[in-house]
Amino acid sequence: MNEFDWILPWLSHELALLLHAGFLKGAPLLWAALGGAFSERSGIVNIGLEGMMLTGAFCAVAVSGLTGNPWWGLAAGAAGGGLAGGLHAGVCLRGRADQIVSGMGINLIAMGLTGFLLFQIFEARGNSPEVPKLPAITAAPFTVPGLNELLFPLSMLHVALAGVWLVTLMVFYRTRFGLRLRACGEDPRVAAAAGVRVNAYRYPAVILSGALAGLGGVQLSLSDISQFSTGMTNGRGFVALAILICSGWRPGRAAAICLFFGCAEALAERLQGAWPALPSRLLLAFPFLLALLVLSCGRQTMRAPQALGKDLG
Amino acid sequence: MKRLSSLILAMGMALLLLSLFLWINGYPPARVFMALITSAWGSPTGLILLGTKATLLILTGLAVALPYRAGLFNIGGEGQLSMGALAAVALGVQPWNALGPLHGVLCVAAGCLGGALWGGLAAGLKSRRGIHEVITTIMLNFIAFQVVNELTLGVLNAGPGSSRTAMIAGSARFPLLYTQGAAQLTAGILVSIGLAAGLSGMLYRTWFGFHLRAVGENPTAAAYAGIAVPRIHQRAMWVGGGCAGLAGALQVTGIDYTLYARFGGGYGFDGIAVAFLGLGEPWATIPAALLIATLRAGDRALQLDWNVPREMVFLLEGLLILCIALFTRMRSHE
Hints:
Chain A has 313 residues and is mostly helical. Chain A has one domain (13-133, 150-297): ABC transporter involved in vitamin B12 uptake, BtuC, CATH 1.10.3470. Chain A has 13 helices and 2 strands. Chain B is mainly α and 334 residues long. The relative contact order of chain B is 0.21.
């Protein structure tokens, strides 16, 4: 019996906890990053992801609170995000306004609207009351040695996210819609010349982008916890956008980077728990610092969609 | 003239949309707007508050407007302001009474420098690493926010249970222009008005301003003409960040005399609205700041008297930015 025998089980236990926490923390980021991928691969910059997440988070809590049914909340979150996405699409595509400016406008509107309506609906400032939340899967329906600790507990939305991620990859790289969508983002003129109606691809892409970001918000407000507080997305939409850029606008890699970000954040929290002397508030800036670092150390050859953010006329 | 008429159209549209929203939610829009205007413009204390808010908004507006003319969209005003405030308070709390007014000058200079460096960081990351300034400035905002929190609640904290730094020394205080009761107006308003006018002059009357506009209008052509585009970008962000940092320093040395944790009441974001309302002209940030300051000076009264949540201001700003983008073709770069 070696006196260091405890290390391996301890380490694997810690690692499993860390990965699990990282997965939970990375999930809202991945929702938004997938949303961003749809919009940006179609050629429309979406800096409004943050606002769309916030809108989704709020709509979900509001509807869940009013109807008492979290599933309606889920639908409302996606719809609210999609509506914000639709606004962005309309302003950029029909109004031909600047895409970054439109995104910032949407962020401000989302901040104002959610704060305003929080008071209107719940008579509350800052935090909403607790509302019915989406069910969590606490116990595994099956037992896999070693993996249970890694995966559970998780929520329905996490399962859905895994599915949506796979579907997104399929759509992007294995369907005609995906090919044409990417063509619109690379060169809308060539796409149009080849008979693709560019806006018929961009509108759904940006609306879907909003809906997915909205689901990221739902994940935060109705699944991780069960209430809304003003500004609760706290920059996650922006971090998701940075992750998307780091991934070279590829949804597959984006998932890996989201997991990395989640784990890094979880690790920071864990370290904070172990050594309270660490500057806890500074650790809250960790994801943003990490995003800056990853971006500035990233390869310079990261290729953006060629027509991303280009003037529409 | 055409730009002005489309600006007015955009403002009208935004107000109309907000009125509609208020009306749907059961508030009388006309009375809400009247209450807002009378609380800001109707009394001497209201006017002083308006002037105080406008002082900061002109500066954060300049922080957006000047880089904008160089083709950069600086949404990091909030972070630059925080870093400026932090630098100012770090020097301000030192017991350097012997320095006299020089102490205050040092604080303000440190504030400008803090903001300028924070802005320059974004420009450096753009030219060296090719990261878009919108992404970096947003990230730097969040980082600055936590840095301020850490220091105001940590090293610089006034004492247990307090959520602010110690008060700054008397010698570091910015001179006052006018006082009435508890309401005070700092001489900072003269500085910010002067700066807005000065930067307008610089933009149209100096080589640097000419180069800056050339880079903003067509960076490729400017580069062919021998203008060092990254250097102009760098300087534009220094100036812009410096303006935001100055706003932070004024907040600390002229208004609060301390720095609170969770600082940054959104002046940085208001600055975007100010710059857009001013169509990117430095001098026009003055009237634009007065307009946004009216909202900011009146929002408390609005919440107390009419039960209208203060978030209404963000909503209106967002609508304004969208409408201006739609009607006047303001872009994130020229």
